[in-house]
């Protein structure tokens, strides 16, 4: 069953979610980018905004429509809401009687993520494998994940860097959401995916979507799929003989700055480091994002294992496209294209992979 949510009812939706205890997060224009931040009213959305993306290039432009979701994706995915850039893992404190206490720290809040992209939902399912399903459950990730209300807005306007279809994903979310919406000129065609969503649809008194609305939404998604021309090569890294000695690693290493920007914008990357930091009354263990492009990330016994950019680029790409497959039976890439857009050296993961599977 599909419903229709007029644009004029978005604020009502946000108010209802707020009343249920959620802080609502949604896309909005900040610092010439679309970013996810607290949202209380529909007017905060990026109405009439489009984005242009190519290798090493991102710019917001005026859209030819007044819709709120006529853009591909933002530099920030939803990753920081689950796997935070900086997180306290445990804390040791001395109380007023001088006794020392040890406390694991799990900080979370109920968040309604409104307007997330299908590629980011797919990336979250991949991160679930790392933080929930690989043996050691991360309690911070688990608590935050359970406290989410997920509202996906399907993708009408993929960028020139998007290749989610070729990466085995889609412009339309099929599962794992509370609400999935496709924007048309007058509002959204909405599908419920959970009991919480069914209750919300009832409270909002949404009417069924008309056949015209449904067909507009369907045609748009077909058009969006056809717009994607960027593709991963059909041949996989695992099929390439003597892969690690391919001469293209050296060629890409000469262009790559080793800056790690690709890992920071990637919705599936999860490298992190931990350190002990002192506080006013004790100390705490802090986990922070790291990058496999950082020399210190492979530090063992006083020296880095991966000494040059070539070995670090190799690690990044092989981890995503080869080792991940061996460990989780899926690739660690959802085709969002962010690593291409935000790479200062205009390195394009699809092009590098194509070269690496050439003989
Ligand atoms: S591929 Fe691009 S973004 Fe990634 S480390 Fe190299 S230069 Fe930086
Ligand atoms: S590797 Fe690049 S295209 Fe793939 S999920 Fe990460 S940022 Fe997106």
DSSP strand content = 25-35%
User: Could you say which small molecules are bound to this protein?
Assistant: iron/sulfur cluster
Oligomer: single chain
Q: Could you state the order of secondary-structure elements as H and E? A: EHEEEEHEEEHHEEEHEHHHEEEEHHH
Instruction: Provide a count of the helices.
Output: 11
E-strand count = 16
Strand order of the largest sheet: 3-2-8-9-10-11-1-12
User: What proportion of the residues is helical, as a percent range?
Assistant: 25-40%
Supply the number of structural domains. 2
What would you call the structural class? alpha+beta
What average pLDDT do the residues reach?
A: 96
Sum up the overall morphology in one term: globular
Largest sheet: 8 strands, mixed
Kindly provide the radius of gyration, computed on alpha-carbon positions and rounded to a whole number of angstroms: 22 Å
Could you tell me how far the N terminus lies from the C terminus, measured between alpha carbons in angstroms?
50 Å
| Uncertain ranges | none
Strand-helix topology:
Layout: E1 2-6, H1 10-19, E2 23-30, E3 33-38, E4 49-54, E5 57-62, H2 79-82, E6 86-94, E7 100-104, E8 111-116, H3 118-131, H4 139-146, E9 148-153, E10 179-184, E11 187-192, H5 195-203, E12 207-208, H6 211-227, H7 248-255, H8 261-265, E13 272-279, E14 282-289, E15 299-300, E16 303-304, H9 309-328, H10 338-341, H11 349-356
Parallel strand pairs: 2-8, 8-9, 9-10
Antiparallel strand pairs: 1-11, 1-12, 2-3, 4-5, 6-7, 6-14, 10-11, 13-14, 15-16
The structure holds iron/sulfur cluster (2 copies).
């Amino acid at each position: 069953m599909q419903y229709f949510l007029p644009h004029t009812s978005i604020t009502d939706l946000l108010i209802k979610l707020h009343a249920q205890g959620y802080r609502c997060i949604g896309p909005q224009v900040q610092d010439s980018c679309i970013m996810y931040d607290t949202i209380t009213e529909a007017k905060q959305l990026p109405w009439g905004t489009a984005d242009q993306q190519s290798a090493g290039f991102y710019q917001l432009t005026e859209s030819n429509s007044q819709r709120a979701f006529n853009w591909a994706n933002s530099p920030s995915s939803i990753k920081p809401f689950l796997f935070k850039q900086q997180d306290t893992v445990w804390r040791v404190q001395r109380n007023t009687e001088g006794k020392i206490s040890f406390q694991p720290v799990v900080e979370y809040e109920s968040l309604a993520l409104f307007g997330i992209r299908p590629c980011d939902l797919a990336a979250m399912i991949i991160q679930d494998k790392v933080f929930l399903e690989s043996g050691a459950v991360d309690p911070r990730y688990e608590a935050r994940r359970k406290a989410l209300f997920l509202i996906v807005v399907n993708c009408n306007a993929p960028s020139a860097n998007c290749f989610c279809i070729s990466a085995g994903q889609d412009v339309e979310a099929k599962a794992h959401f509370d609400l999935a919406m496709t924007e048309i000129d007058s509002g959204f065609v909405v599908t419920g995916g959970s009991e919480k969503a069914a209750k919300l649809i009832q409270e909002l008194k949404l009417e069924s979507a008309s056949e015209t609305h449904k067909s507009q939404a369907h045609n748009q998604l077909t058009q969006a799929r056809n717009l994607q021309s960027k593709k991963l090569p059909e041949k996989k890294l695992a099929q390439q003989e003597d892969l690690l000695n391919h001469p293209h690693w050296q060629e890409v290493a000469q262009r790559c700055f080793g800056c790690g920007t690709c890992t920071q914008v990637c919705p599936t990357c999860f490298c992190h480091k931990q350190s002990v930091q002192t506080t006013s009354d004790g100390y705490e263990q802090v986990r922070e994002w790291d990058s496999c492009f950082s020399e210190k990330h492979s530090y063992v016994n006083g020296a880095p294992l991966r000494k040059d950019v070539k070995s670090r680029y190799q690690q990044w790409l092989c981890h995503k496209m080869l080792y991940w497959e061996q460990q989780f039976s899926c690739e660690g890439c959802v085709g969002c294209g962010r690593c291409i857009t935000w790479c200062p050296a205009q390195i394009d993961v699809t092009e590098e992979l194509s070269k690496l599977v050439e003989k």
